[in-house]
Amino acid sequence: MRQTLVAGNWKLNGSKEVTKQLIEGILGGIGNVKNAEVAVCPPYIYVPQVAELLQASQVAWGGQNMCPQESGAYTGEISVQMLQDFGCKYVIIGHSERRALYAESDQEIAEKFVAAVDAGLIPILCVGELLEQREADETENVIAQQIKAVLDMAGIEKFAHSVIAYEPVWAIGTGKTASPQQAQDVHKFIRDMLQKENAEVAQKLQILYGGSVKPDNAKELFAKEDIDGGLIGGASLTADSFLGICTAAN
Ligand code: 13P
After folding, report:
1. Which of 9, 98, 169 has most ligand 1 atoms within 8 Å of its beta carbon, as the pocket-test mutant?
2. Confidence band (pLDDT; 50, 70, 90) for 175?
3. Cβ(8) to ligand 1 under 6 A?
């Protein structure tokens, strides 16, 4: 059985005070969540604060991005080793906002994936189609290409140390969730694709759904066979709604 994972992606939100209150709120209710893994991914600069607040808890933390190089002349970047220095367990890779707003290519995302796994950090690899791609019946081709780019560079074995998040771009921050069946279909497609490479790796892989997950739709999504949790944006920014989703995963 795969463990359910709920990860919060805070994106560009927060302050020292907001971070303190949000983490304290999460810690206030997380004790009841015994059967799901929980993680939060704050902006880089709040990682040390989050690490300190969460260190004695069951909640893990991670980065929202990383640089595949270990050190050197890469102004503004943060390496995997730096994230690990502050106890990160996860790092989000290839989020659609990074693909769209910062022109990250499949190739760069694959390099990050390899660097993260090689260093022992668990990448949460995001894939997902645009609305026009879904409407043109291109969803499976798009997802296959995004995964194949990583598979070609990394090889299937590295997927044993990773998480995939299916985030349809049209569902992110829009309030439009993929229906549980739409999400399940893509999750199964991803698992079947990896199954052809290595059945054991594919069966153990956690595949999260992301895109307007809320406390009131989480349970139905997480009940689907191939949906192993969620990557949560907006609803991870208040303790009540994040805890509501964690409870649905429990
Ligand atoms: P929302 O939950 O705000 O739709 O964001 C999803 C997401 O992008 C998580 O990475």
Report:
1. 9
2. confident
3. no
Is the pLDDT at 127 greater than 90? The verdict is: yes
Q: Name which residue sits closest to atom 9 of ligand 1, judged by CA.
A: 233
Strand blocks (E) in 114-228: 122-127, 163-166, 206-210
Between CA 205 and CA 213, with CA 208 as vertex, the angle to 5 degrees is 165
**Which sign, positive or negative, has the C-alpha torsion 181, 183, 187, 192?**
positive
- Does any ligand 1 atom lie closer than 6 A to the CB of residue 172? yes
Closest to 40 measured CA to CA, from 79, 92, 93, 99 = 92
Q: Are 222 and 230 in contact (CB under 8 A)?
A: yes
Res. 188: pLDDT tops 90: yes
Atom of ligand 1 nearest to the CA of 235: 2
Catalytic center residues? 95, 167
